[in-house]
Write a structure and sequence with these properties.
CATH superfamily of the largest domain: Glutaredoxin
CATH class of the largest domain: Alpha Beta
Largest sheet: 6 strands, mixed
Mean pLDDT: 86
Strand order of the largest sheet: 1-2-4-3-5-6
Number of domains: 3
Order of helices and strands: EEHEHEHEEHHHHHHHHHHHH
Number of strands: 6
Number of helices: 15
CATH topology of the largest domain: Glutaredoxin
Structural class: alpha/beta
Strand content: 5-15%
Low-confidence stretches: 1-6
Helix content: 55-70%
Length: 292
């Protein structure tokens, strides 16, 4: 038997016969996350999609090896797996870390980061040959998640996904209610923190002047940091992240203590909601240069 590749080259279904080559030997070149699971296991079905999503996002930063404990009991026994799901992180042929049960996405990201595992950039050839991705319709995605959440009321992950989708459709009130009702393990998830930051930005615009008026105020007085903050928030929520970061950096440059440290908070919250690692990294360095 040979491992059955899934649709992603970074996810493998591993057999006992192939474990030495596909996991132990492979871990000498790249970290391997081993997911022990079974078809009948409900929590496994909750964790599996999260691990697969991360494997795709990390683009070869690590390999996800899935081991069905029913089909491959010898491997599970060798790792002394007592419950499923159980996840181990291997590098250099040795176990570095791991966890039993379902862990939040944020905790898994923190574990990977703790061991220096970062997303790998897409190759130029892959980018050149890839067809442009069609983003999902936010309204349709919210409707789909609402139906799934209603059919699975005990699945808090679906409620979090629905809250994130509602933020994309401009419904912050319902999103906030869903976030408030999340269990403790998801309340500290990176996605929840990012959503909270998004809600804070949206709340800051209540009764705020339009962008044109804010631009006029800044042109008249470059030290009007309140206007800079509101303009930056408007730009961020309008899909102009670099313009927003420029406003927040200028606030930090002029007065880092303004309104209880608002410039630094605005930058950190913006870093949470901007999905552009290169841009965020650039402005993190600018912020550090100003602060330290």
């Amino acid at each position: 038997m040979t491992p059955e590749n899934t649709s992603s080259p970074h996810i493998l279904d591993v057999t006992t016969e192939a474990f030495e080559a596909e996991v132990l030997q492979r871990s000498l070149q790249v970290p391997v996350l081993v997911d022990f699971w079974a078809e009948w296991c409900g929590p496994c079905k909750q964790l599996g999609p999260v691990l697969e999503k991360l494997a795709g996002e990390y683009n070869g930063g690590f390999v996800l090896a899935k081991v069905d404990v029913d089909a491959e009991p010898q491997v599970a026994a060798a790792f002394q797996v007592r419950s499923i799901p159980t996840v181990f992180l291997l590098r250099g042929g040795e176990v570095l870390d791991g966890f039993p049960g379902v862990a939040p996405e944020g905790a898994i990201r923190e574990m990977l980061q703790r061991h220096g595992i970062e997303p790998a950039p897409a190759s130029p050839d892959a980018l050149e040959g890839a067809a442009p991705a069609t983003p999902p319709d936010p309204v349709a995605e919210a409707a789909r998640l609402r139906a799934e959440a209603a059919a699975n009321p005990d699945n808090a992950e679906l409620r979090l996904d629905l809250a994130l989708a509602l933020l994309q459709t401009g419904d912050p009130a319902e999103a906030a209610q869903l976030l408030d009702g999340l269990p403790a393990n998801l309340a500290t998830d990176d996605r929840t923190r990012n959503a909270r930051a998004h809600l804070d930005f949206a709340a800051a615009l209540k009764d705020a002047p339009p962008a044109a008026a804010l631009e006029q105020a800044i042109a008249a007085d470059g030290g009007d940091l309140r206007a800079r903050h509101l303009l930056g928030v408007r730009q961020l929520l309008a899909g102009e992240p670099e313009a927003a970061l420029e406003q927040f950096i200028e606030m930090l440059r002029q007065d880092r203590e303004f309104d209880g440290g608002l410039p630094r908070k605005a930058l950190i919250d913006a870093f949470r909601v901007i999905d552009d690692p290169a841009l965020v990294g650039s402005y993190r360095r600018k912020m550090s240069a100003l602060l330290f």
